[in-house]
Amino acid sequence: MLTTLGVIALACSLDLLISEPPNSAHPVAWFGRLVDHLEREWGDTEAGQRLAGVAIALFAPLVPASVAAGVVLAGTAVHPFVGAVAAGFVLFLTTSVRALLELTETVVAATEGDLETAREDVRGLVGRDATALSPAEIRSAAVESASENLADGFVATLLPFALFAPLSLPLAAAAAAWVKGVNTLDSMLGYHSKPIGTASARLDDYVMWVPARVTAVTLAIGGRDLFALRRARAWAREPPSPNSGWPMATLACVLSVRLHKPGVYDLNPDADLPTLADGERAITVVGLAAVVAVIVALGAAFGTTLLSSMLVESTAGTVVRGR
């Protein structure tokens, strides 16, 4: 348990100090280039593309998972401390909070006096066309993305890592890297216009079911409004994704703002679109929710440690009685 605490502390410290490596040195970007090569015409029919997509969804995430596990195993073979440091780096590379909050802050601040910059920078957060969006709509997009990416880019990899770390650091690193691979596949291929990405999108829906809802809880706690979860239920299923609506609707209710994607969804529609102050508060709430998520992850790690100890004691008692 102490090793797990140290590894998570290392990963979070690296995120605060370094944020993210440049794309040229980032393993997630390397995996993205692999996905680019996989996105091609594998068959002459839509069914053929979907079948190829199933193979990609099943096997492509195993590549980063295998590499992550191999790196940690190699480090452990040198010394357990080296293996723990390697696991910390894997977790750091598969999570991101500081970069998310900094970009959100940049976009929100730019909506006040530099709308063109805001429209340009918000592309780093959302895929929608921002050329016709008002300042309030740009802030809405930034707030939506901050909540959704807290789930995708932090909670989704932190939770499985924490669950498996007390049992095996290589397994924990593999789990985090596998989830990151699934998320990356979905973000690059999971569009209705790409039959090859159907399986990846469906797999991501299953993988993100728990992290999205845990993230909603952390946002409610971070915003000191647990009843926001109850209010969010009214709109959580409006977005096309079965998961992203939970963190977005919860943050909308915590902030008492309307989050709106034209022609797609309207969360908390009776409220006003975010003001500059609302956008700034959103950044604070998401940051606090990330801290809460770390506490939740440590609780999960403690639960794994306790359960494994109980199983070991039970097995040992059975063996003794058998003798």
UniProtKB/TrEMBL annotation:
Compartment annotation: Cell membrane
GO molecular function, one term: ABC-type vitamin B12 transporter activity
Plastid in keyword set: no
TM regions (residue ranges): 51-74, 81-101, 154-179, 282-302
Keyword list, A-Z: Cell membrane, Cobalamin biosynthesis, Membrane, Transmembrane, Transmembrane helix
GO cellular component: plasma membrane
Gene Ontology biological process terms from the UniProt entry: cobalamin biosynthetic process
Domain of life: Archaea
Pfam families: CobD_Cbib
Claim: Cytoplasm is one of the keywords in the record: no
Topology term for the membrane: Multi-pass membrane protein
Pathway participation: Cofactor biosynthesis; adenosylcobalamin biosynthesis
Assigned protein family: Belongs to the CobD/CbiB family.
Purpose: Converts cobyric acid to cobinamide by the addition of aminopropanol on the F carboxylic group.
Name of the protein: Probable cobalamin biosynthesis protein CobD
Species per Swiss-Prot/TrEMBL record: Natronolimnobius baerhuensis
